[in-house]
User: Fold these one by one.
Assistant:
Number 1:
Amino acid sequence: MPAPVHPSQTTVAWIGTGVMGAAMCGHVLKAGYRVSVHTRTPAKAQPLLGQGAAWAESLRAAADRADIVVTMVGFPRDVRDVYLAPDGILAGARPGSILIDMTTTEPSLSREIAAAASAKGLSAIDAPVSGGDVGAKHATLSIMVGGDRRTVEVVRPLLACLGRKIVYQGPAGAGQHTKLCNQIVIAGTMAGVCESLLYGYRAGLDLHQMLESIRGGAAACWTLDHLAPRMLQRNFDPGFFVEHFVKDMGIALEETARMGLTLPGLTLVHGLYQRVEALGHGRSGTHALLLALEDLSGMTDSST
Amino acid sequence: MPAPVHPSQTTVAWIGTGVMGAAMCGHVLKAGYRVSVHTRTPAKAQPLLGQGAAWAESLRAAADRADIVVTMVGFPRDVRDVYLAPDGILAGARPGSILIDMTTTEPSLSREIAAAASAKGLSAIDAPVSGGDVGAKHATLSIMVGGDRRTVEVVRPLLACLGRKIVYQGPAGAGQHTKLCNQIVIAGTMAGVCESLLYGYRAGLDLHQMLESIRGGAAACWTLDHLAPRMLQRNFDPGFFVEHFVKDMGIALEETARMGLTLPGLTLVHGLYQRVEALGHGRSGTHALLLALEDLSGMTDSST
């Protein structure tokens, strides 16, 4: 395991340059790390190359030259592929390097990768994030970290470029479990905010004034502050993709089934989001839940 | 309608001294208003008498000497009684006085009281609040106001003793509609927070660390900050009574039925709270929703 060294002497391989990953990788570049990027759609890496990143032709090539490998991809199957496929990160990484998966994925997969990494003399940690596109852009993410505690301390300076709250949660998979806790809260708040806007619209309220009132009391939440205004503008751009949120809630529901736990709110909201996908909004932002609820009441547009 | 005058020259009749009302009335006294109190259970008014309030033997007696009458009672039936009964506030109030109902009640009842008040030369506004016992104690409530706009401006200095956000929402009943929007958001956030804690408990997380992580990201909400810690301590004292929240959600569901609106999240949470009541927790705080969810999964105690 490398001792903490100056960013300019540390090579980071960055895998995955979607909405979140691209913004996050930019902060790592700005902090002075040597970064090589690989991603499935090379065009998406272009802006990062302009900021000084090198392009790596393959996962193996990226991992081979890196002290730290960071992944921020889409689905558990992508995580499995980039780490465990024959030409994946575990096949290419140098002994002693540290692998950080920041994707939200199955806790069991994080444990599997950590074990496989350990068997090869590598250290893998799970470090999913919350804070959305806003948090990625402003480096104000909350980062929930699971894995070997000493390894986490070695990469803490890197994580500190990306977020303002980095909390160690326990062994491999604990970061993922914490992120699922986070998503369960968001499922509830999103449903509450969307239903509240529909109620206010039908009640004839000025929704901007209504929001001004309720943001100040016990209903205060991040969703009201950051997503309700986008809903009023009918701007359903991501942010955070519906299809990723459906994935996260699906993982949480599989875990709860395994735990013998009944979470009726999460179950309901997961079903509503499947309706959002059926309406063709899988690649919209999570606040497109409003559209499924409008649809449920036979409304076409509740903007003012 | 009285012009705004110095608090010491304004007599306020305060009706209702429950958890919220008692704290709020204390701020009015501290601001220098002359206050007379009447409430169904005189013992609850005792601390306010010690702070300088006078006791009024009846609603009529309280209203008869007041420039402003404030009500903070429990249920719509109580609101109807204190305003509209033969020996109620409307029977006793002096022409020109202003009546402020801060109870959460039916928007239609607020409109009915405003019309009945107007017919007697009185002005009635609806001004329900959010922010719970914490907000009442620290005078940081959000106050959502409906009714005649000029009347609202006359009593704004009084409302400013109680809250830090006072927003005019529209004609009579608009304050109530806004409060119902607020409760709909809270229904969602409360379900999300409770389900998240159960998930984290079953996943074996340190719940304090988990909360530390998720409070910093897109799951951030008032309920996480103020009620989740009480849940971890198994402290289900009110706060805000379950039975009052059930009442509020019931009003919102009646309104949505009238509007032809389907709100599945609110419907679900309302049902879960009826389970909380069935478990004997109607007079616990709203965060006792955790107990119904534990019960649903056959758990008896999810504290760490």
Number 2:
Amino acid sequence: MKMIDDIAKRTGTWLSGTGPMNDIVISSRIRLARNLAGFPFLTKSDTGQRNEIYRLLYDRVMHTDLGCRILFVDIEEAPELDRQVLVERHLISRQHAEGEGSRGVAVSDKETLALMVNEEDHLRIQVLGSGFRLEQLWERIDKLDDILQQQLDFAFHEQYGFLTACPTNVGTGIRVSVMLHLPALKLAGELEKVSRAAKNMRLAVRGLHGEGTEATGDFYQISNQTTLGKSEKDIIAEFCSIVIPKIVDYERMARQALLKDRPTALDDKIWRAYGTLENARTLSTEETLYLLSHLRMGIHLGRLETIPLQTINDLFIKAQPAHLQKIRGMRLDGEERSVFRADYIRQRLAESN
Amino acid sequence: MKMIDDIAKRTGTWLSGTGPMNDIVISSRIRLARNLAGFPFLTKSDTGQRNEIYRLLYDRVMHTDLGCRILFVDIEEAPELDRQVLVERHLISRQHAEGEGSRGVAVSDKETLALMVNEEDHLRIQVLGSGFRLEQLWERIDKLDDILQQQLDFAFHEQYGFLTACPTNVGTGIRVSVMLHLPALKLAGELEKVSRAAKNMRLAVRGLHGEGTEATGDFYQISNQTTLGKSEKDIIAEFCSIVIPKIVDYERMARQALLKDRPTALDDKIWRAYGTLENARTLSTEETLYLLSHLRMGIHLGRLETIPLQTINDLFIKAQPAHLQKIRGMRLDGEERSVFRADYIRQRLAESN
């Protein structure tokens, strides 16, 4: 699809690596789970009901002014590679890409808003932003939710709040998550501590692609696990004033400690990563993310001044399998991808130097 | 010692990486073990006898025309770092460096001849050359042996031949050894076969620094194990017409197979090695030898054309611990050496590019 080809070639606003605390916070995200009153949850819907929900939501979403230009992708009809591009950009979930039946996603042209239709819930509203900006995102999604509620009748229970397909989302239906880059805590072997503290606060710590994925490239997603019994504002306030500033402080201290106590080991790590990316002839996604991760830290610590941060942020996205195939303009098997990935990165680094 | 400082700064003739089959054969070496008649072996000598042997041999060696300029190093008096430099250049053995009592070595100015006094035997005559040139070395050492026999009375038994401190050397007292660079056989996992075949021919396969050392940087020393019951010429003929050409053929085939079947994997290995050497901030001796080993293969296969082979050959020697300290002009502990090694290599590669 031409539209997805274009998306795959740009960095995307929320991937730009800018915004508050961008040395450590890659991006912020809030999503709300909503279901239509008068329709069964998707697990209980037949094909006819599912199609009806899809048509209704498509219609209302596309004919409501959400304050930005919206592109709608029919996920059921979309080629696998296009779906994979959307997953790699965090605009849809893996389950949504791999699911069955009528389903889709509405994406704003800046990719800071995505509305998944017929994922686990009838509608999932998601806003994304670069850096640490949960309060701003909350304002936006709260407004969007209000606008949509004028067009749609969401299933709501006086006592429980918004009703959702999975009980963990009942109540506010909110999930707040922040993607962090924690290479120094990883090097210092102190991630376990952070992870334990987060779990004690009933927060989930996950990898780059959310639930069930490993932390690749030292990226960690921190998100709330419960949505019942706390207001949206309380959940966000906790993230903004306690959780994230604390982890960011830990990571900054770990980076300063590396700089002070082990500058050679730090530079060695950064420059070896650079040397490998600049010279390798085949690179896996995972190795690439780790190497880029070290460069990213190097740039933020002022140890690597020859490459623009923007190039690194862009490569984080472009080095992923579906993006690479879009750039190359053809399907590539695993081995071909690794070779093209190495070629592409070598070329980009040479250009930026 | 000024003399050793000078030695440490040059590459040395036999280390030049030239000569026949130099894509695979680093160097050839022949040594003869000799003892003086009328003196006990060193294991049975007291200090007085040991000193007497030392003085006698020093005197004769220094006053005999061996056809080249000779430098004599009193190993007992030499600082540890100087002894270590001589070990790293294969001019003396580790035992000789670490031993006790009066002992020394006479080295020709081109480092292609070394006479160890009071190592395991009273005298060990050693000739070295770059590439595969055993026949030429045999001519030279045979002549030297004749010249020395006119000056010295060597212990010789009608039936057994030359008598030596260790029974494995009795007879001809000859050890023929060839240093091979076998990275492709290593990558192809076929070294075990070569090693087994060599053992069946009663040859020893050892690492870079001879007996009891591991094969670092894909370097292997092949040498004869027995010296009794075969003439010197037979031993050398076997090396020249069977053993070495066969292993060289194997390695060349393995390299061609890599080029044909796995060119990307090959280039990946070579270029990653280059990227690491060009960027690392700390490098151990062992890692350095492996990385240089890959560059050496890359140059010989025409995959890496920016660096002169001479630089790589020189770095093989200079990257060693004692050489580095000589270049730096001061003692360095292990960590300091690794940092200086990385700095030095980075600078050399930048200069050669």
